[in-house]
Amino acid sequence: MAVAETQLYAKVANKHRSKSPSVLLESLLAKGFTAHIAQKALAATGQKTIEDAAKWLHSHCNDPSLDDPIPQEYALYLCPTGRLHDHLQEFWKESKRQCGKNRAHEIFPHITLCDFFTCEDQKVELLYDTLKRVGDSFSQSFPPSISLSLHSSTSYLGFFIGESHANILKEFALAFSSEASALADCHVKPCLKQLHLTLAHKFYPHHQKTLEQLAKCINPGETCQWVAALYSRDMRFVHYQTLRALFQYKPQNIDELMINAGDFIYVDPTQQSDVSEGWVIGTSHRTGCRGFLPENYTERANESDTWVKHREYVFAIASRFFTQSENEPNVKVNGEVRNPSTSRSITNVLSVQNATLRRAAASFCSGKISHLVAGKYYRADLNFPSTLPKRKDGVKHFECDPPLSSCGIFQSRLIGEALLDQEVTVSYVYSSPALRCIQTAQHVLQGLKLDQKAKIRVEPGLFEWTKWEASKVIPNFMTVTELAAASYKVDTAYRGNFPLSSLVPSESYEEYVSRSSAVIKQIITACPSKGKGVILIVGHGSSLASFTRPLIGLPARDSSDFAQVVRKIPSLGMCFCEELKENKWQMVNPPVKTLTHGANAAFNWRNGIVED
């Protein structure tokens, strides 16, 4: 057990236990559940119905932490509803589309009244009683509308609450915190500094003007009904990343995690360094179980997606009432229904222009080809290619420049056929000098029925970040002459923008970003924008981020963030950009879907069939 977890257990294990069970608790006790586990289930589901709690207990039957005495964390937020809420949600959506995700998108629109605090499971109902009593006492003095003024800086954009109204909200927060601390024996800290409703936080400075223009479209005086809502979260995963499963995954091995589409998984970024590439280790929010899962089966979710709304007090002009929001799904706390299969994509709001840009990351063999016997290639299994192309230095250089796998060949041709079905017209083809990329380009063109018409331009500048090369040297790539002799449709007359000799082993991240930005601009300049056609660029997983961001005017990511993004890019991942006007590009949905598939483990017929 980690030191932090040990301290957490010690902090909560010896607290005084309440003896008065609720009606819901009595029903669970009658079903044979212990008081501690029943209270945990009720707290985790917002104490709404027996059915919710029983379903949670069933899902967590194999949860190794089920008996752990760690309570939930709770926070009190003031949330807008009505037309103001609708306008804020539109801002959330449009700011994310135009400027990318920032910290504000992690949580729904709100004003923080009391930040997160812990409360023992058996005392949560006291928080509900407190919210109702304090709400009733402030119902007549609560302002019918709240004064909001826009404030902007290079890293923050939001509404500040007017002083007179802020004082009332602070008094409300202080009254709740005082009574909750006394009754529920927990430390609740009210927010007594400048109250605000955040619109954007920790964004790139060059997006400030765009965000300000979007924010000015919000009328802070719109009709609004304010709701004081009590939310909870699992305190163990506060600093974890939250992922959402896009597809179901059934474990192939005992240490893998079963996930269903829509499941949320908590992932600790500090524990991923020793995990195999393409995999993560995480804990399921639905079951509490922990294990490995394929990273490309998931997407990044919002921090608040796993929060549970417990109770809310509605400050209405004509009437005041207290509600449990029983029909509201626990994880859809901001009223927005998300489609897991499409939420990665940016909505295409314009028709595709004449000049477009697409990139496909190559699918490659699992690591190096280590099956060399006496200097000859040995096909270890059917996913290894049946033969290798001839090169003057023999097969040894395939160790650092591996070919495409059999599955990769099939997948590449399948992508080409799908592009053909969508009537995609390719005018130019560029590829990294890596053999697996050239083979991907060739088989995509075969699927498009263009392999006898289009020529592949081998561009050394498209090679991946050389720091990631395990050999710490630049691979000895096949020459254009060797590729042509091996029947690859390469343009032997093309001379790359970056000669092979310019690739530096273990280049810095800044050098790689500079190279990527320069080569993509040179490729665009070399391809006339007049006439209908597509530039197809086949690179590496890193290419999708390093080439598209400078094209659409975004700065490079931090190197640590960049590595996390690249880890999630699947084989044959595709980005699609369109040119709105000269040198003005935007990302839109690719014309074909992503190719997905599961793992297929090696099979030994002796195990379990003949032998015990």
TrEMBL record:
SMART domains in alphabetical order: SH3 (SM00326)
Domain UBA: 18-60
Annotated compartments: Cytoplasm; Nucleus
PANTHER family named in the record: UBIQUITIN-ASSOCIATED AND SH3 DOMAIN-CONTAINING BA-RELATED, UBIQUITIN-ASSOCIATED AND SH3 DOMAIN-CONTAINING PROTEIN A
Gene Ontology, cellular component aspect: cytoplasm; nucleus
InterPro entries: His_Pase_superF_clade-1 (IPR013078), His_PPase_superfam (IPR029033), Phosphatase_SH3-domain (IPR051710), SH3-like_dom_sf (IPR036028), SH3_domain (IPR001452), UBA (IPR015940), UBA-like_sf (IPR009060)
The protein, known as: Ubiquitin-associated and SH3 domain-containing protein A
